[in-house]
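Memo to structure team: turn this sequence into structure tokens by end of day. - J.P.
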Amino acid sequence: MTPLSLNLEVLLAPIGVERFFELYWEQRYLHIGGRAPGYYRSLLSPTDLEQIVSNPEARYPAIQLARGGKYFPPEAYTHDVKFGSELFAGVPDTQRINIEYRNGASVVLPALHRSWLPLRNLCAALEAQIDHVPHANAYITPGNAAGFTPHYDVHEVLVLQIAGSKRWSLYPAPIRLPCRSEPFDPQAYSAPPPIAQVEMNPGDLLYLPRGQVHSAVTTDCYSAHVTIGITVYTWADLARGLIDEAAAGHELRQALPPGFARRGELKYRLRQRLAELLSHRAGVDYDALIDNFARRVRSAQDVPAEKFRIDVVAIDANSLLKAPPPSRYRVSRDVANTVLEFNGQRHILPAPAESTLRAMSERDIFRTADLPGEISGEARLGLSRYLLEVGFLAAVQSAQ
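Reply from structure team:
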């Protein structure tokens, strides 16, 4: 099995993707066991993990330590290395990490998909399948030690047991499907007896919906697992487009009446005016709302990995430039600005820049000096340089 072959079907076998989303997704936990111990070997191995933690090029926060549900301060296991007049800060102290690990601390490798290609490929494959946003962390816990104390996550969780074993305890969810603004509060939660216990062995998978409280301990064997966290887009995220669209008009930009929060007699006026404003939205173009939201999601997914190039010349008005295909961005107007939505970001530009921006998208390759528009040549060059900086434009090498 190669890293590229890992996808949702492989992770969920033999359950099946359709059955998973019908019976488990956002509803209840799922444990898949009985697989070959090397099921995830192409993704990550114990030897890989040892090399990652031992890598002298690592920097905080790429390697972290945790015990008893709390993270160590970085100065407890990192140091600064001086080389000549240069200072390399946050270098993990492998000796100190070894000591703390032997004393029961867990080693955490957050956002490992950013630096480990097989995990990056897996996250890309999952995002291409489900459109929600995955990330990958790795956790290494010694034998006879506890991992994190009972808590829940605000994202969906897929646990892939790489090596060793770990016993997971599951508890009732205090909040059903918490959103990102509702993180777990350990002070407000007293764990009851667990509702289920799951023994995770190499090759196993455990799915936990967000809000599912969980904790884990090892026995006489260490544990190494990868957590694929999936941050979801919700119906609330989609519906926010209604407010964003409505806010382009002046009515919803007007201030609430003075004393609105304290004067009870204003409640009727607030209710009447709010109903009046929302009634104007009865003719919402829901197709356009969905299309625009989907376009923003796709544009965030399609961001290519940035690569450093040394054969670069600062652009001038005659440099050859190229814009992305129209499917990757959206140009619109609000009351006073031109808005460019690209790579999941909104870029607010001067209103007169719209004609120049649209001219860029109408040409396969262009020179800034040849573009029409309401802004001056110097302003057009400044716009091109800004759009190159944010990745919207790409420089094209001229044929020699």
